[in-house]
Each structure stands twice: as structure tokens, then as C-alpha cells.
Write a structure and sequence with these properties.
Layout lengths: L1 E4 L2 E6 L8 E5 L10 H9 L3 E5 L16 H15 L4 E6 L1 H12 L5 E7 L18 H13 L1 H11 L7 H12 L3 H13 L3 H4 L6 E6 L8 H9 L4 E5 L11 H13 L1
Helix pairs in contact: 2-3, 4-5, 4-7, 5-6
Length: 267
């Protein structure tokens, strides 16, 4: 279905509207809802109502020239929640989607959210800055943005290879690369600026629901130290490190992730 937000039409996927409880899945940069293919299957088997969307500029959603800051992306989530009348749902955010989910928690006081799951979340700050020595270097972030602007296909190929710690088939790497290539060039660059520049430390302080943090111990894109920062800042947050997973925690060690994901949903 299509949902309008600030003039942009968002692609939203709701295959089982009568499921027992909604789970809203928010993807990361530069991907789309397609990365949750195996989690959607699991949720359907467990009787849940999986709802996913393509953030503006990604997948099948519109790609306007602006609106890629976390405030607007959180507003887009709020529009989806209101339109579908979601209540007492589980909010799941992967990578940049985790940062957007946390911005939603602050701007909308966690409207409708019963539980929060952060997967390899690029938050509170993806890039090191004065007073925050965690995350990746500004130089590395600028290098990725430069590649976005000059050779986006090379960026997508590089990203697909850095996503996983466990060996993956050529077909699996092509799958990720294809999803990344489907994104708008505008969105890929503008969202990368947001990843580099946004500061979500206040967002962490706004969480008032049970929270589970799942992170790969071999994550080369969002360092595991950020997961520790998240756990310390969110009261009562539960941290689970998958020691042999990289950033693509949703697929790297799929059987183990599915087990842990199901456990945290039920908890």
C-alpha cells in the first residue's frame, strides 16, 4: 500500500493485518524492507503482524529532494503508525533504522510502542565527535559519502562485502548489492549526511519501554562499542552480542539470529 507523508508516498507492506501483535520493521541505509525477508517469514509463522516500509528514497517509496533528516524520517514512521492504527506494537530498527526508531521514541513519546528492539543500531552517533569518542572516524564517513557521489555502484558492492562476517554466497552478496542499487542516488547521499551528522544522545534518554539490543561482535560498520553506549543510556536495556556476526545481523548467522530474535519478542 501507499501512505502519504509530507508529500512523499511511502511503500508499506502489511501481509497479515489480523496478526496477534504488530511488529514494525525499519530498515537501514542504503537498503529497503527486503532485508527482513526471513524475519517476516518467522513472524508470520509465530502469528505476528509484520509491518515494514521503505523509508523515503529507498525501495519503492518516493525519492523527494529533501526530508532525509531523522526528524522527518521519524515523522514518516508516525504517519504509518497512525494510518494503520498500530497500538501496543513492537518497534524494530536496524542500523540507521534504529536511530530513526529512537528519534520516534523522543519526538512522539513512544506513541503506541510496547517494546523496542535495536539491531546493529547506528546510534546515538555513528561518527566520532568532540565529547563522543565512539563510532567510526569522520574521515571514513566522508570517504563513503564521496564514493556515494562519484561511484555509487562501487559503494553498493563494497557495502555488501563489508556487511557480513561469516562467508556468504556470491548470490547473497548480489542480493544485498541489488537492494542497495534500488535506492535513489539522492537518498543515498542525503541519508549518509544524516548518518554522519545527527546526534541521538537525547533520543536514548527518551526510551521508557522494555528494550533489547542485538549487535554483532564483528560489526565493521557500526562498532559494537555503540551497543554498550546504548545499553548504559537506556534504563533496563538488555544487550545480546552475537559474537561471530557482522553488521548484517539479520542474515549473517541466520538460525542463531532467528532464535534470539524470537526470544526477545516473547520476553
Amino acid at each position: 500500500m501507499r501512505i502519504q507523508s509530507d508529500g512523499a508516498r511511502l511503500a508499506v507492506y502489511d501481509p497479515q493485518p489480523r496478526g496477534k501483535e504488530a511488529v514494525l520493521l525499519v530498515h537501514g541505509w542504503p537498503l529497503s524492507h527486503r532485508i527482513f525477508e526471513y524475519q517476516v517469514q518467522l513472524l508470520l509463522e509465530m502469528g505476528y503482524r509484520p509491518v515494514s516500509l521503505d523509508l523515503r528514497g529507498f525501495g519503492q517509496s518516493d525519492a523527494p529532494a529533501a526530508g532525509y533528516g531523522y526528524d522527518q524520517l521519524a515523522a514518516d514512521l508516525y504517519g504509518v503508525v497512525q494510518t494503520l492504527k498500530l497500538d501496543r506494537f513492537v518497534l524494530v530498527g536496524f542500523s540507521m533504522g534504529g536511530a530513526v526508531a529512537l528519534r520516534y521514541m523522543r519526538l512522539y513519546q513512544g506513541y503506541g510502542v510496547r517494546k523496542l528492539l535495536l539491531l546493529s543500531a547506528a546510534t546515538p552517533c555513528w561518527v566520532q565527535r568532540p565529547g563522543f569518542p565512539y563510532g567510526i572516524s569522520r574521515q571514513r564517513a566522508d570517504g563513503l559519502i564521496a564514493l556515494c557521489r562519484t561511484d555509487r555502484p562501487a559503494l553498493c558492492e563494497q557495502f555488501s562485502r563489508e556487511l557480513f562476517a561469516a562467508p556468504k554466497s556470491t548470490a547473497s552478496l548480489r542480493w544485498i548489492e541489488q537492494i542497495a542499487l534500488e535506492a535513489s542516488g539522492i537518498a543515498t547521499v542525503q541519508a549518509a549526511f544524516s548518518l554522519r551528522d545527527e546526534d541521538g544522545r537525547k533520543d536514548l534518554q527518551a526510551v521508557r519501554v522494555p528494550t533489547s539490543i542485538l549487535h554483532g561482535g564483528k560489526d565493521r560498520i557500526v562498532p559494537p562499542e555503540l551497543a554498550c553506549v546504548q545499553q548504559k543510556a537506556i534504563p533496563g536495556a538488555r544487550l545480546r552480542i552475537l559474537p561471530d556476526s557482522g553488521h548484517g545481523i539479520f542474515f549473517d548467522q541466520l538460525p542463531l539470529f532467528q532464535q534470539v530474535f524470537a526470544e526477545e519478542l516473547r520476553r
